[in-house]
Amino acid sequence: MSIWMSLLSFVAGLGLFLYGMSQLEEALGVLSSGSFRRFLRRSTGNPVTSVLGGTLTTMLVQSSSMVGLLMMALVGAGIIPLANAVGVVLGANLGTTFTGWIVATLGFKLNLAALALPAMGGGALWCVLLARREHWLAWGRMLFGLGLLLFGLDAMKSSMEQVATRFDVSVLQGYPAIVYLLVGVAFTALIQSSSATMMITLSALHTGIVDLPSAAALVIGADLGTTSTLALGGIKASAVKKQLALAHVLINVVTATLAFLGLPLLLSLVDASGVEDPLYQLVAFHSGFNLVGIVLLLPWVKPFSRFLERRFLSSDDDVRTYIQNVAPTLVQESLEAVAREVECLLVKVMALTLRNLKLEPESLRLTLAMQQRLQQAFPSGQRFEESYDEIKRLEGEILEFCGAVQTGVVAPDQVKQVHRYLNAARHGVYAAKSGKDIRQNLAFLRHSEKHTLTAFYQAQVGLQKQRLTELGTLLEAHYQPAHLRTELGRLQEQVRQSHRDTEQTLFVQGLHDGADEQETSTLLNVNRELKAALDNFALALGCLRLEDAELVD
After folding, report:
1. Other C-beta atoms within 10 Å of 362: how many?
2. What's the farthest any 2 CA atoms get from each other in the chain?
3. Which domain holds residue 388?
4. Which residues of 309-337 are buried (b: 16+ CB within 10 A; e: fewer)?
5. Of 261, 280, 309, which residue is a domain's last?
């Protein structure tokens, strides 16, 4: 076989390897999506457990890029804080080195072709005969992808052996290590797979085309090049995605710089460990410098995250807080982002209501955190009409995003969840509209010279203040469904009773207590709309938090 045919065989093997890896990753994503996402959420309580979770998850799914992209979704949806997402990305760098250990242990010790053909054939047959359900199809794709991966690896290994016998290896020697590092960066960024670069480097080291120091420099470059996946994903993304992408780049730059500067020392430590096989020395070096990077960077995760949070701040024109950070294809994460977005909408509705009644957030008996959220709900100095329009725009964004979510594969219970959230947003807007419709009436009553009208206004403000305090407490605290249902039912009954009592009083005394016909009509209208605002807010809260929300409708 000529050297050109050997190179062509190598390229073909690389293509099969990359395609097989993509099939394997997608299949693992389907098979383990729910389980490993739950595992990631449970294991991200602090930076240390986040690193461990990122390491173990990446070992499972064999793709640091997949884990990184998922973390973008989780942190964007507000499910986990940025500091813990940074910890997961840090751990993913170590988890991805597990691939090298598998290949060094099995890939160059077994007859890969003998394993590849049965795996490809079995996987293809599985996909044809058992493809009725996505879960079953994923098992077939995983087996088929594994076979392709092994077949491609065998082709690369065999072609490298042919190249080594016909190629003057000395032409590659003498170049400084920085050249190999840059080649590793460029090649990995091009093919979007550090694992593939590792496989090629192991093949070249196995056949003697490169020596261990050069191979180590290539592997360092591969770790840098793999940041291109998240970097590309963050170019036109939201602020939080840019922050996480920048974290990935900076972490790998620092780790790679330390590894490159300490290259002779690290290789001497690996050699002194008693490992003689150069393949094992290379994968030990790869795992070693990533482990050193974790040990050195872990204490700085939280301050580093605070630094990142001051970068790429969101535009003031964007009314969204969470949903722009999540791909609609990630259904569960999207639903959690929608829930948080609807909660933001209800906070804005409450803040607008307080402004309409000339009440400060501090006047409500709420936690300091909730008072701050109400104060920061709208930009300082924004007019009432602009704030109302912002609530309407946010409802539209939620509606559009939920529509995008439902175009994918969505389970029936998830469809119901989407509709509940949309109902919650709609009732929230109804509450805001009720307040907007009587804004001029409230101003008239507030500035009236008639004691009857100002007394009515003050009494209504007092009742609204009490009810808003209760609703704000229920919104902030995530009570058990039974307790929340009871509290909402009690509050709605109190609102209805107050409305009936006030209406009865106006019918009996209104025209005889200093208010003319037109003023009495205004008082009745204000009483009705204030009740509607509270009712709709309670309904919105029920739709947001209760699975059987129709019970409070």
Report:
1. 11
2. 110
3. 323-552
4. eeebeeeeeebbbbbbbbbbebbbbbbbb
5. 309
pLDDT digits (tens, 9 = 90+) for 29-62: 555 555 556 666 666 667 788 888 888 877 776 6
Residues 398 and 285 reside in one and the same domain: no
Residues in the chain: 553
- Cα distances from 91 to residues 54, 56, 345, in angstroms, run 5, 8, 35
Residue type, 408: G
The answer to the question of residue 143 being in a domain is: yes
* Cα torsion 281, 283, 284, 289: sign: positive
Residues 214 and 346 in one domain: no
- Token pair in block for residue 240: 């939080």
CA distance 32 to 26: 10
Residue in the block written with tokens 């630094």: 307
* Residue in the structure block whose two tokens are 């190629």: 167
Give the separation between CA 488 and CA 493, rounded to whole angstroms: 9
Q: Are residues 124 and 51 in the same domain?
A: yes
User: Tokens 């590659």 correspond to what residue?
Assistant: 172
Q: pTM of whole model > 0.85?
A: no
The Cα–Cα gap between 380 and 402 comes to 30
Residue pLDDT, tens place only, 437-478 = 999 999 999 998 888 888 899 999 999 999 999 999 999 887
Token pair listed for 139: 């098992």
